[in-house]
Amino acid sequence: MTISNSIQITPELIASHGLKPDEYQRILDLIGREPSFTELGIFSAMWNEHCSYKSSKKWLRTLPTKGARVIQGPGENAGVVDIDDGDCVVFKMESHNHPSYIEPYQGAATGVGGILRDVFTMGARPIAAMNALRFGEPDHPKTRHLVSGVVAGVGGYGNSFGVPTVGGEVEFDARYNGNILVNAFAAGLAKSDAIFYSKAEGIGLPVVYLGAKTGRDGVGGATMASAEFDESIEEKRPTVQVGDPFTEKCLLEACLELMKTGAVIAIQDMGAAGLTCSAVEMGAKGDLGILLDLDKVPVREERMTAYEMMLSESQERMLMVLRPEKEDEAKAIFVKWGLDFAIVGRTTDDLRFRVLHQSEEVANLPIKDLGDQAPEYDRPWREPAKRAPLPDNLVAAPQDYNKAILSLVGSANQSSRRWVYEQYDTLIQGNSLQLPGGDAGVVRVEDHPRKALAFSSDVTPRYVEADPFEGGKQAVAECWRNITATGAEPLAATDNLNFGNPEKPEIMGQFVEAVKGIGAACKALDFPIVSGNVSLYNETNGIAILPTPTIAGVGLLPDWKFMAKIGGASEGDHVILVGGDGSHLGCSIYLRDILGSSDGPPPHVDLFAERRNGDFVRSAIRNGQVTACHDISSGGLALALAEMAMSSGKGMSISLKDCKGAPHALLFGEDQARYVIAVPADVANFLCANAEGAGVPFRELGRVAGQSVVIDDIVSLGIQQLREAHESWFPQFMEGGQLVAAQ
Fold this sequence. Notes:
By secondary structure, the chain is an alpha+beta fold. It has 25 helices and 28 strands.
């Protein structure tokens, strides 16, 4: 066998492909010869961190991935969960961090495009999107440019494609100065008996290229995403893909139309590593070989090499195994939608991945080994040291509670994100029931008069850094709480695990402990992980991001008429704290943003209490007893009350005189498993009696009344005063104004 190879393989070339010497030796042992340049690129694509999960596989296997409603867990393009009536929800979250730092608009746009393809590749029509964004400190010279570009990219692609953005997060911290995070989520609806998978079946069947033409954009993107940044970052700009949402919309419609014909045996999105990864995964899953002829691949640039074609990450492309008798019907659909349709290969029975280019064989590799034999590491890790508890008397009370609360609601991380989400289309498709700004986005399920789905995305990176196990638990618990706060039953989750360099034992220790915490919470809350993504090497010049294991979840509302909102309170409602008093100030934003300290451990997450309290709140909402609900998280009770008042436009008269603890600890403590609910006066006693009977801690705090938030004699803030502080920070920041409240 002679493989065409015009480029000499040198140690420098191997290193530039992200392969270590022992990994290259593994390649030599597997194939028994020196690889061609194209083969080296294929191995680099398949064995990098982004595609192979070689540092994380061992720990990902420990996560709970099964449940009564789980139809498809990890291993496919997206997870699939049953929502009754023959329907299912298909969803996933994935990162586009490195590309978005290099080229923020296209990096974010193609992140949205990629996650949408993951969903409709499974046969689902996308109905909702979210994004979790982390940027550097506000006064860093690149931050404003990055925020502007990323938000425009997310909106530009999602709005044009026609999917509502219903939730997400935006946070700032100096640790993201050199490596921002862009995590994109999408969910779609499908029929449970009409899910499409990527496992190829049948020998001698056509392998079909669908969608847009192949160009040189994104070549080496997956390898770039598996390395740290350094001073050469600007040279990496050509590895960022360029997206076209209008082509993607046509691809969606063409794929869904094609799927109804029965022509599709297997289908795979061309995402990271493009043609290489999609072809290898389809063949390997089906225990088949694949033969590709690159001369038949539609291209939009001249003189493209085999290497470039195999590693291009041009967007809006799919690969499919087709029933031969359906070829003409299938081709007609794609021609109608103005898209390319080309038979570029066939399935074989030899378990080889063979690639032809200009009548020469440029790759001939064992297809199973490309995936199954990728290196898998049990990297050394060190358990992070535990922080000592904070003595209560060392955390000072604010001299002025009003000023402290205004400072927090108007700070970089707690202010309104309206500037961001008003650039997204939140209403397209006409099914959005709750928009960004509350606990969770809610979208009506079409063709069902009452059914809806709730979506939330959460993580508190400062908690994860202080105690990765508790921080991992808390990310899951807060996502579960936010879904519960609408009245929805949390069904399942997807994760996006963003960390630094796993070759450093302290970073690997953060990852391991966070995964353990996530697993413990998912088991206790019956909230399995059905899809996800790991993004490592998020470092620049050795400085790692805050550990950020984002959790996004989906919940089911059987009747959206019984749905709670953060701003649904009415005059005279009783305000009730569910979950008991809190006073934990370690790792709190009060400590960080008011006192300038990041000391102490994060709050402990009692998973039994989370389940008990959440189940009680959900039951009360579904029984029509709750007019408004909000979970307590960053900023504690004080911010929860302020946010509810700003959202409803109604004030509150609150008393803490019966609570145990110092007022500042009660107001700003971030203890978990807690909610604030507003309840009509005529059912308040009944609800409290039910809570007592269920063993759920509760406390009546006061009434919904007036136009101010009044707490005993220490807080008195008008709603308009709160709103002005809350709404002003982001517009001022983006306009380059003075950031008085920024921390």
